[in-house]
Records
---
Amino acid sequence: MTSSGMTSAPIASLTWRVALPISIGMFFNTMFNVVDMLCAGFLGTLELAALSISFPVFFILYATASGLSQGATALTANALGAGNVALGRRIFSQTLILAVVLGLALSALGLLSSRWAFRQLGAEGDYLRLVTSYMDVLMLGGIGFFLPVALNSALATQGKTKPYRNFLIAAFFGNLALNPLLMWGWGPFPAMGVSGIALATVIVHVLGAVYLWRITQRTGFSEKLSLEELQPDAEVMKSILKQSVPAILNMLTIAAGAYIVTWHVQHFGKEAVAALGIATRIEQLILMPAIGLSAALIAIVGQNHGANHTSRVREAWTTNVRYGVGLMVIGGALLIVSRHGLVGCFSENPIVREHGGNYLLLAGVTLCAYPILFATIFALQGMKRPAYGLWMGLGRQVIAPLLVFNLLAFTWGWGLQGIWWGIAFVTWSASAVAIWWGNRTIGVSPSPPLISHR
């Protein structure tokens, strides 16, 4: 899709055209994680809990990569919307350098600190051994999680969302094939248990980076980057980080939120932790269409904001919210009706099924709040105003849960059910703030300048 298409095509059709491949890709990405959970469940409840408890630490790696991509996509889209192709290429080349540096740095940090982090979540003995054996392999391949999303930033900003969708679909099937080979040691492969699940993840992401590199080198404004363009440019890197760091920190608040939820839930046993891991992955699966819709906003809003089409910026946001809420009404109803059966696909443990079903009952009536949150955050990111997402994340993921979970679960004695109710209350409260703030700012704020010297 050309830049003119992004700034002139009808918003309704443009939204679906950009968002549908993202939603399909995210569905397969979530199914990727579902397959990992199913495979861990075949190994045992302890292995299943090990993957569940690893999520907050692993998400730090994913969140940093995703935040970098969001910031780069917003800047590149604004540059292309303003007709500055040379700046767009420069932003992309510097994003790749940052992806390599951050990937290596966070992998090293994770290898050094993960054992301490998991001990804080109650992991000891075999439980700690399993979770660290899984995470150590993922961290050794950390750069493989950064490069695909960094490469995708050049494609997504042009509305070209199909290549990344293709990668995620292929990754799902590759992971589906590799998991049993590596965890059970079929044929010539040694039995690696949960480490094999991690190795399969690393392999498919590295191969995906190779595929996306080849696509970007022959597609649109990002084709045939020269060695000169790949030289570090401090000013452009600074501009990318200025947009990316708030987005990264916002994503990290999700990791912090998952850590906070897991810390509270682990007081009620390993079955509760396993149920949390299962239920949140099911919830993520239902949320995929809304997330895909919202993710499309960065490129759509970015290009239109760069071109000073403020009315189209606002229309993109309101259209996205309406579509997302409508989809989640349907998804929530389906989730409530099928919740016990869905949890039962992952575990036959009756305690796990009960806890997971209780979580999903409340999740079913909370789903409609998420599209409002997602659309507002991504629209403001496209407008080069990422700080809102950070403050919203701190409030919704960290401050409010610490207050509400302790009050409901322990002070008022609601137990585990208090945590589930707390998640619903905090999410709906945050969505009310999001709709108020978005209505005040989206499509009415002036555009900050592009990078000054380009």
Note: The chain has a mean pLDDT of 87.
---
Amino acid sequence: MRTLILALLPAAAIAACATPSAGGPAPRIPLRGADCLDPSSARSWHEVSSTEVRVDAGRRKYRLTLTGQCSLLGHGPELAFEGDPISGRVCGNLGDAIVLRRGERCPIERIELIDAATWNETGDRPKASVSGAISR
């Protein structure tokens, strides 16, 4: 009996660490493979807020949540992505960022695929939304 308790104790500790707390932020779960954003397929982007950008990449649409406020996002039509150093894809890994023309770097906290209905909500926003071309 004592051996069983000692064997289960590490498993319980690991499970407790893996479970997100109710009030804490959601864990960073990067996209994988073909689900990642390929900057060369991005057609347009919309600034939803200073911490959220939506990107239209053809068949796939993305919601990017930025780590902090990106103050210059609305001041220009072009932006670039900094993703994987080999493929250039943006999956939501540490180091992924939006890079603005003026050199400001806006780290990406989370990236997720969204459906067409969520993307279409972006078009109904007031003039504060900005859209433009993606550059590399």
Note: Residues 4-21, 126-133 have pLDDT under 50 and may be disordered.
---
Amino acid sequence: MRKIVIATDGSPTGRAAVEAGVELAADEGAGIVVVHVVSILDFAEHGNGGAPARPQRLPRAEDDPALQDALALAAAHGVEATSELLVGYPPKQIIRLASELGADLIVVGSRGLGRLKGVFLGSTSREVLAHAGRPVLVVQPVRAPVPAGD
């Protein structure tokens, strides 16, 4: 394995994907590309009372806390890492990037919503898994055990 694409969004689930991907890359001697995809809807102009809103600037990878956190974790583990901040539909952008890079593996997080909720809410991990055309590792965050009742 030479290159792993790891998707993150800064959530606990995204952090779990980064941790798993970095650990795997360290074990395999692979490099990683960490990607955060933001929706174009986050940058749409919203008027208030008919007046146009100020246009928002597109984000930069250097300013993205999720990407910077992932790069720091990779450096701490001696893993060669780069980052990409993309705008668009997350599953499509993740798959496109992995394809362009010839990635050996994609690592994504899953909230573990279950089949029924996933149908209604959509699921980046489900979409990537279904359409990636390459191996995908789906990671769920470790949950604290529920204490037994009194």
Note: The helical segments are 12-28, 65-76, 90-101, 114-121, 124-131.
---
Amino acid sequence: MKVLLAVDHSEYSDAAIDEVSARPWPARTTVRVLSVVEPLPPPAAELWYDGRGSLDLAHKELRQRAEEFVKRIVARLKKKRLKVEAAVRDGHPRTAIVDEARKWHADLIVLGSHGRTGLKRLLLGSVAASVVGHAPCSVEVVRLKRGKKH
């Protein structure tokens, strides 16, 4: 079985990581931990990077942080005796997660949900909803239990 675990630096991803970590998976299951580095538009990059560097440098730093984050998750899941791979991709999470699942022939995508509703969901969109609607395989959306949200 191939499980694609899509993560970001949120508590919602922590819930998805916990779910994958706690579950008894079939023998020979491989978990690929995926983090997507989104492109920074130039005005946001200048604000984020405080004008000290270029857009390329800002992107490299974000990618390095994502790679370190994924490595920590891989190490944690390996302690559960799972076969784990790391993947960091550039792009927009909605499409990058689905593209990765398609290219890798994933059997299951696991990701956390921010649980946005109403206007926030309309304005900000929902990565989870988009992945569910376009994925080539089953998708498990892990939600935080009520009261655990900060």
Note: Confidence is low (pLDDT under 50) at residues 118-124.
